[in-house]
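User: I'll paste a sequence; please echo it back and then give the predicted structure.

Assistant: Echoing your sequence first, then the prediction.
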Amino acid sequence: MAARIRIPLILFRRVGKKSMIKSQNYIPEKLYREIVKNMPISCVDVVIAGRGKFLMGKRKNKPAQGKWWFVGGRIRKGERLEQAVCRHVKTETGVSQVKIKKILGTTETFFKDSAQGPGTHTVNTTFFVEIPRGKVFLSVNSDNSELVWFSKIDKSWHPCVRQMLRSAGFK
């Protein structure tokens, strides 16, 4: 049996004006490697702000393993950008409610390797969101080893990360 990876392919059925999830299948690893090798991957990145600071995660996986990066990731087939933002925020931080303020911009990243092996090209739409006031309990998942609030941009961070943080008003 072929190995499977965590990138789900969602099948929807129409019910009136709403789409309902019918079933969830996973793309075989060999096929997904071919996709990564030959096509750009659409992603969302999320600048999460609260109390004058922004949240960053230290990545566990390639690409950018060990680097500070935004919460975010791939967009699923049939998933709206805002849905992808909310899904990634919840699965990577445990925060279930955010207020999407605006789209900061779109950037591209090119990495020599990826979790699937071949180099990767991503097209990232970056959103600026705020978390609700009050106590927020963060939980780390398999994407990040740490989640940390920062108040300043580090000059060693990836140029796309620095660019989007400046667009969000951080220095």
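The beta strands are 4-15, 18-28, 41-50, 53-59, 68-69, 71-74, 99-111, 120-130, 144-150. The chain has a mean pLDDT of 85.
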